[in-house]
Amino acid sequence: MERAVTDLAAASLVPAPADFAGPAPAISLERAADVAQREALLDLAFGRAARFGKTSERLREGRKPAEGLAFAAHGADGRVVGTLRLWHVTAGPARPALLLGPLAVHPWFRDRGLGKAMMITAINEATRLGHGAILLVGDAPYYARFGFEQRLADGLWLPGAFERSRFLGLELKSGALEGARGLVSPTGDFLAVPSLDELIARESVPAALKRSA
Ligand SMILES: CC(C)(COP(=O)(O)OP(=O)(O)OC[C@H]1O[C@@H](n2cnc3c(N)ncnc32)[C@H](O)[C@@H]1OP(=O)(O)O)[C@@H](O)C(=O)NCCC(=O)NCCS
């Protein structure tokens, strides 16, 4: 696993070989084993400090993504080359919605339709699961092709600085964002965090016992 993550980052520092091709990456639900490579890909795409500083991150931190709406794309060798996740939020009081992002595709695999395929997969699956609307902060020229519009998020704001022109919405059910007004807040389940007692107990287990466990 360590090796693969290092390789992934290193691979982006040089251009893809001229004859680089291969089968299209396969999109599936993210697995626990994908996490380290997903994080490396996001660091590569956005920069570690920058991505954790984003206002959207305030709606994701400490939360689980929405059930069935965390996707990974794997290249032919099994490495993660694309990631996209959606999160539960409320778009103002009592108006459930999803927050989409981050979306990232490894530089070697860009401009081949993978980002589009991941977006369409996510939108279709969110629709199938009965969700009403998706919000995101991103480049409007990219997301407009999937139907995202700034006007649908006009009455909403985020818990931090954001550019209004990059704050976009998409209705999966007609009228789902009509009249939406207020602060977007996270509503997803919390990630399990070990209690202080558990952390202390772990630290006090003798190393020999840990090795044999
Ligand atoms: C944005 C990103 C996910 C697109 O992935 P991709 O697999 O290359 O996307 P696709 O192949 O489906 O689409 C490529 C098209 O989108 C366009 N595009 C890519 N990024 C764009 C952007 N930020 N704004 C506008 N258009 C963009 C490309 O020019 C190309 O246009 P074309 O179809 O007219 O040739 C990828 O470039 C990436 O990971 N970027 C870094 C992370 C990032 O910025 N993510 C969020 C975007 S706000």
Automatic annotation (TrEMBL):
Keyword Transferase: yes
InterPro entries: Acyl_CoA_acyltransferase, GNAT_dom
Residue ranges occupied by any N-acetyltransferase domain in the UniProt entry: 25-169
Enzyme class: transferase
Single GO MF descriptor: acyltransferase activity
Cross-referenced SUPFAM superfamilies: Acyl-CoA N-acyltransferases (Nat) (SSF55729)
Entry-linked Gene3D superfamilies: 3.40.630.30
Keyword Transferase: yes
Keywords attached to this entry: Acyltransferase, Transferase
EC number assigned by the record: 2.3.-.-
Protein name (Swiss-Prot/TrEMBL): GNAT family N-acetyltransferase
